[in-house]
Amino acid sequence: MAGSRKETTISIRKLIIFHHSSGKSVRNIVKLVNLSHSTVQYVIKRFKEENRIENNVSKGRPAKLTERDQRFIIRKFVKNPRLSALKVSAEFNENLSTPISPETVRRVLRAAGLNGRSARRKFFVSAKNRKLMFSSAKSMLNKPEAYWNNVLFADKSKYNVFCSDGRIMVWRRKNE
């Protein structure tokens, strides 16, 4: 477990260096600034070796998205898992000044525990519609053959003759 540490301010560091350069001992400086012995020694050591009081400049590229932007992206995919990263990045680029790539969107989603999965094929028929379909099928059971010669079946189902629409991808968490 990492302990939380408070950073000493620049003004306190300057005060430590001022007292050190005026010839005071580390023990006296510790009493004056009310910090630990090791902290005072570290500030003095860093001033002697590197001739600086400030912290090092942070390494690495700063994050392009804020936490609020990341939450916005995650919320979009939780509401509609069938969205593509390309569409969301295009929408994000229209609304905000910082342009982001689709890969950045994917990276945010994966960090949040969402992964691209192939959508499951299942057709939803409610209990009410099931009863209606069953009752209409029962009523048609004893119709004569002449009746069926004049019936044209129209179904709302979509059929592809030449090729499929491809796999439909969704963003889901594990075991969802």
UniProtKB/TrEMBL annotation:
GO biological process: DNA integration; DNA transposition
InterPro entries assigned to the protein according to its UniProt record, in alphabetical order: Homeodomain-like_sf, RNaseH_sf, Transposase_Tc1-like, WH-like_DNA-bd_sf
Any one GO molecular-function label of the UniProt entry: DNA binding
Major subcellular site: nucleus
Superkingdom of the source species: Eukaryota
Signal peptide: none
Compartment(s) of residence: Nucleus
Annotated Gene3D superfamilies: Ribonuclease H-like superfamily/Ribonuclease H, Winged helix-like DNA-binding domain superfamily/Winged helix DNA-binding domain
GO terms under cellular component: nucleus
Residue stretches making up the Transposase Tc1-like domain: 71-131
The protein's name: Transposase Tc1-like domain-containing protein
